[in-house]
Sequence to fold (303 residues):
Amino acid sequence: MTHLPFDDRDGFIYLDGKIIPWREAQTHVLTHGLHYSSSVFEGERAYGGNIFLSEKHSARLIKSAEMVHMPMPVDLDAIENAKREVLEANGFKDAYVRAFAYLGGEQMGIDTTKCVTHFAVAAWTDWQSYFDPAERKKGLTLATVPTRRPPPECMRVHSKSAGNYQMSMIAKREAHALGAYDALMLDWEGYVAESSGANIFMVKDGVILTPNADRFLNGLTRQTIIQIARDNGYTVDDTQRILPEELIRADEIFLTGTAAEISLVSKIIHDGEEYSFGVGPVGLELASAYTDLVNSAPEPHSP
Ligand code: PMP
Fold:
């Protein structure tokens, strides 16, 4: 597929209460969100017209805004409706959905009290695979990078707020410079945290381990995979701190995320050494169970 720039496409975007043509969804250069990362977002996926865990994503968007003191102009129902309208207007069934909120240009500077929060939803179909399909097929290569996840006192690490992604973007560049496809980010104490945009799991002697999510985003896919694995009879330990030296002794490693889905890791570069991992069978089993789940009936609409 040829690459289309994201700001120059046919289609429709929801912005502040209405569906408008894609190219008209513009904002001013003096938008607060552009200067101070005063922006929160969600990454969601529709499968066969249904957004998997749609209400959980909407609730997380509201929570993320709350955590960074951005008053949300819409409630959960309005977010749900906007997402549905965007999928319908564009005629999308299988799509990546981006619901987001940002502060406008009413005020510049650190004081945000006069800023208005804008709410928008866009969707696109060209992220059927978030990672390059060829890289994903052979298994991803990750590298431990210098950029760390900070302590929760310094950053709202549990919010999906733009500020957290500056670290992710730098980390990904650092990983590329080390010859890897993506970053393995450690926390400020040197324990394994996550990749630039997905959670990480390891399998060792049939047991599944994933680091305690008290220092980074506790992904909805992470939570779903823990449940699927337990239902399939696996022991899952999601409460430990894991050192990179333990991770590299794993039998299998995989990433989880709404965009990444379940992506298997075949190599980790750590301190200049390369460590290889099998791509499956546990990761493949869980990936297939995840595919079945996301393509099954939609979650019941809560009353
Ligand atoms: N960590 C980061 C930094 C992410 O950007 C994402 C993707 N939202 C995740 C983890 C996984 O979260 P989820 O499974 O809810 O998509």
